[in-house]
Amino acid sequence: MAEVIWGLATSHVPSIGAAMDRGKTDDPNWKALFDGYAPARAWLAEHQPDVAIVVYNDHANGIDLDFVPTFGLGTAERYEVADEGFGRRPVPDVIGHPELSLHLVESLIDEEFDLTVFQELAVDHGFTVPLSVWTPDPGDAWPCPVIPLLVNVIQYPQPTAARCYALGQALGRAIRSYPEDITVGVLGTGGMSHQLAGARAGFINPDFDHMWMETIETDPGQLAAMSREELIRKAGSEGIELIMWLVMRGAMDDRVTKVHSDYFVPASNTAAGIALFDNRNGQPA
Amino acid sequence: MTLSSLSAPVRERGTTSMSTESGAGRPDLPGTPIFDGDSSRRGLRMNKLFMSLRDAGNRERFLADEAAYCREFGVSAEQEKAVLDRDWQAMIDLGGSIFYVYKLAMMDGRSMQYLGGVFTGMGEDDFLAAMRAGGRRDG
For residue A95, how many other CB atoms are within 10 A of its CB? Predict the structure, then answer.
């Protein structure tokens, strides 16, 4: 059976990718963010999974508003890196894992999560920035095949936090029921508190973010009980994308071991968070 | 930094919606536009125009005759005016999604901090300074 060995929660702001692509990681406005990534990157480099799943949302690049799938899963052999209008990021295209994808689709639909299936999908910064946070220098290829799991967080009504957590739990069961003995890393992306439009633009809520960072480890069910309105009020209209962390967390065991976390303001107009959890219970880290 | 000066000329939709969920309506929070199904329905043509600007050839055609490009996409007269005037707040009010509106801003060489300066009335420099000081708070 397949096993989730780690979960990584991280912001996916485009400017983090741009800072890396333009060699600005030592810039005074960015250095502390990237220094904060270092321990997680070092650990991840020693714990390479066979496949990764990235829970993310598209930003007008791979899909538009003709179709707004609440949840979607890619089943392709390959995902192109999208050109978002300023040239595509200089990072490799993504190799998929269609066999695991198709198993996940069947398992999740059997569990009544009626996902939209993507056979073709260009992946944008929401997907590639988390891969870069994990692997800053991928060379010609990312460390392993990666599967996109899309969540609608940009058009209200987004799925509830509870539904995202339940999807994650079903995802964990689906992974564990895969017949091959492979290891899987799950990335939950987005957040933390931020708001891009309106008179409240620039809103950041460090108290909420610190609570979320702590509770995602210890009591994710408590976060899953939050309403959309509460999330938007406390984390900002775009901070609601933190619900994607709950998909990642749901796929892990109740008890996880935190490897590293860090918090940084501002990454563009957002609070950036990273949290890495080891899911191999009873094993030395 | 606080949000105490919400009297800035912010045009937002009604204040009558319920503040609960379960189909009772979207959240109605001060200074917080919610891009919902109704916004998306009104903004669909304009958002499609913004998405098309990912392509360099489309950006050239847009810049050559912005009004004609707007008509080609079938946006409303109000939306066309907002686009031509670069009235960012109006684009949001008329159904623009910030992630789509941002495509036009990027084409103009504008940053999300610039847009934040517009939406808050602070101007880009003060907005950026507020972000670097830890972001803005509800006040």
Answer: 15
- B73-95: per-residue pLDDT in tens? 999 999 999 999 999 999 999 99
Residue in B32, B42, B53, B137 to test binding to A, most A beta-carbons within 10 Å: B32
Distance from the Cα of A15 to chain B's closest Cα (Å) equals 10
Say whether A202 and B136 touch across the interface (CB within 8 A).
Answer: yes
pLDDT in tens, B123-136: 999 999 999 999 99
**Are the beta carbons of A264 and A16 closer than 8 angstroms?**
no
Residues of chain B with CATH 1.10.700.10: 37-108
For B29-70, write each residue's pLDDT tens digit: 999 999 999 999 999 999 999 999 999 999 999 999 999 999
A3-278 adopts what CATH topology? Protocatechuate 4,5-dioxygenase; Chain B (3.40.830)
Q: What's the token pair of residue B50?
A: 């913004």
| pLDDT for residue A37 | 98
- Residues of chain B in contact with residue A203, where contact means CB-CB under 8 angstroms, are 3, 135-138
> The complex's ipTM?
0.95
Query: What does the alpha-carbon distance between residue A144 and residue A50 come to, in Å, rounded to a whole number?
Result: 6
User: How many interchain CB pairs under 8 A, A with B?
Assistant: 153
Q: Which residue is closest to A58 within chain B, CA to CA?
A: B99
Choose the closest CB to A228 out of B27, B31, B120: B27
Render pLDDT for B7-38 as a digit per residue (tens, 0 to 9).
334 444 443 344 444 455 688 999 999 999 99
| Residue stretches of chain A with pLDDT short of 50 | 285
**CB contact set of A122 (below 8 Å; sequence gap of 6+):** A61, A62, A79, A80, A81, A82
Spatial distance between the Cα atoms of A231 and A99, rounded to a whole number of angstroms = 35
Cis peptide, bond prior to residue A157, ω within 30 of zero: yes
B33, B130, B132 member nearest A198 (Cβ):
B33
Question: Which residues of chain A does B32 touch, with a Cβ-Cβ cutoff of 8 Å?
Answer: 195, 198, 200, 232, 236-237
Any idea which residue has 């420099």 for tokens?
A: B125
CB–CB contact B131 A59 (8 Å):
no
Looking at residue A86, its pLDDT comes to: 80
| Catalytic center residues of A | 125, 194
Chain A closest-CA separation from residue B78 CA (Å)? 19
In this structure, which CATH number among 3.40.50.360, 1.10.700.10, 1.20.120.450, 1.10.10.10 belongs to the domain B37-108? 1.10.700.10
